[in-house]
Amino acid sequence: YKLFNDMKVHEPLVYKQYRPFLFFLERQFMDVHDDLPVLFCHGDLHPLNVLWNHDQIKAVIDWEFAGIKPDIYDAANLVGCAGIENPEGLGMPMVVTFLKEIQRKNIFSEMGWRFFPEYVLALRFAWLSEWLRKEDSQMLEMEEAYMEILMDNMDILRQEWKLPSSA
Q1: In 3D, which of 59, 45, 31 has the Cα closest to residue 123?
Q2: What is the number of structural domains in the chain?
Q3: Does residue 16 lie within any of the structural domains?
Q4: Interval 25-78: pLDDT, tens
Q5: CA dihedral defined by 65, 66, 68, 69, rounded to 10 degrees?
Q6: DSSP letter (8 states) at residue 34
Q7: Contact at 8 Å (CB) between 140 and 132?
Q8: Which of 100-113 are b and which e, b meaning 16 or more Cβ less than 10 Å from the residue's Cβ?
């Protein structure tokens, strides 16, 4: 909540714009967040931090945010990054195949999968913090639009990604 307390003081208009996303997550996610099972995670897993050699991973770089985090952290961050510039990316074959394969391997908890779309949305607050720090008004606008798409389409995303209901 520190981000929102800081925004309320220093960026009241931004605070007002982003408050609906916090309220949404408070109703459906925040109470369970601390109960999500944890694993060691990369912390910044997204397509630009994976080096490929043909069709295999050669290396994963940029480990500065690694640590113990909810089991779905890296997957939610990667999926969230896949859709920021074009939200249709949330349903692109790479995302759908990625989620299908990690579900098949039974890597993450049932609880994590149940709240996966909410976690994708929640992780966008880290990016919001980055855009505020950089005073990047264009990315702030894009982030708000993206978060609204995520929030308004939770059920569609669950269907597309073949995930259980959060209820």
Answers
A1: 45
A2: 1
A3: yes
A4: 999 899 999 999 999 999 999 878 999 898 899 999 999 999 999 999 999 999
A5: 60
A6: T
A7: yes
A8: eeebeeeebbebbb
* φ/ψ (deg, to 5) at 40: -75, 125
Residue 49 domain flag: yes
Q: Distance from CA of residue 159 to its chain's centroid?
A: 17
pLDDT tens per residue across span 79-98: 999 999 899 999 999 999 99
Looking at the chain, the whole-number percentage of residues with pLDDT higher than 70 is 99
- Identify the H or E element spanning 47: none
| Domain CATH number, residue 151 | 3.90.1200.10
Range of the domain at 84: 2-160
Write down how long the chain is.
Answer: 167
134 in Cβ contact with 60 (< 8 Å): no
147 within domain boundaries:
yes
Residue 3 CA to residue 6 CA, distance in Å, equals 5
- Cβ proximity of 50 and 90 under 8 Å: no
**Single pTM value for the model:** 0.93
Token representation of residue 75: 């997957």
